[in-house]
Amino acid sequence: MSNRRYKKQERHDQILLELKLKPHVRVADLARQFGVTTETVRRDIEDLGRDGLLQRAHGGASARHAGSHRDLDERRHERVAERERLGRFAASLVTEGTSIMVDAGATTMEFARALAFQQTRVTVITNSVQVAMILGQSPATSVRLTPGDYLPREAAVIGTETCDYLAGYNVDACFIGAAGLSDTGVSEAVAGFASVKRAMMRQSANHHFLMDASKFGRTHLEQVVRLDDIGTLISDQRPEKPLSDALRARKVRVLVA
User: Given CB 3.0 to 4.6 Å as the disulfide criterion, which of 14, 93, 130, 218 pairs with 180?
Assistant: First the structure.
């Protein structure tokens, strides 16, 4: 048992470091290493699992590899308070009479709920069935759902037909999410999502990326855009170095909810 007293954040950092070096860690081994109870380590693993930073497994935890992604139904139960706060803040930026594009995702669903609640008069074009259903409940919102190939696990449509439909509109802004943000840019784990996001950006005068802090430093298979093209990043906290320096160098506007 270690003589050193590890703080909670130090334990979290060490667990993630261990998972970079090996595919699986055991609760009992970590408890001995940190000099804490197994219950404390299980709570640490639960916290990191909720943030999507590892995969909980029997007796311990496994690494969540780059490019792995949970379905929408699983993601929407993670970091709920952070995404709700982020969504409310982003919705406050939408002014009366504007037109926007909104893509599919757990965070944009929270944005849609906040927008519906404040009943801003707005036209919304989306590829998300969930976003369309949420905003469709607001009498102030005009909703247009894109055609395309349906992805049941994401409740969204994608494909050439989707992008062609988006190309027929010009809007004031887009509000889109993504699975990862690193110094290489914004990346996406769901096949087909990146092209829809880029199509929305091409038709929008202003770009707003909604990403909570758990996405920082993560890179997935499909590149969406490089940092230069982000526009505005809206998050629940400010990125740390070196990502913050890279964003500043590319003149990305960062807003914290």
Answer: 218
Domain 8-63 falls in which CATH fold?
Arc Repressor Mutant, subunit A (1.10.10)
pLDDT in tens, the chain (257 residues): 556 788 898 899 899 888 877 878 999 999 999 999 999 999 998 888 776 677 777 788 887 654 445 555 565 656 678 889 999 999 999 999 999 999 999 899 999 999 999 999 999 999 999 999 999 999 999 999 999 999 888 889 999 999 999 999 999 999 999 999 999 999 998 889 999 999 999 999 999 999 999 889 888 889 999 999 999 999 999 999 999 999 999 999 999 99
Whole-angstrom distance, CA of residue 78 vs CA of residue 173 = 27
Q: Do 8-63 and 73-256 fold alike per CATH?
A: no
**Residue 249 corresponds to which tokens in the numbers above?**
């160098």
Domain ranges across the chain: 8-63, 73-256
Between 3.40.640.10, 3.40.50.720, 1.10.260.40, 3.40.50.1360, what CATH number should domain 73-256 receive? 3.40.50.1360
Rounded to whole angstroms, how far apart are CA atoms 4 and 218?
30
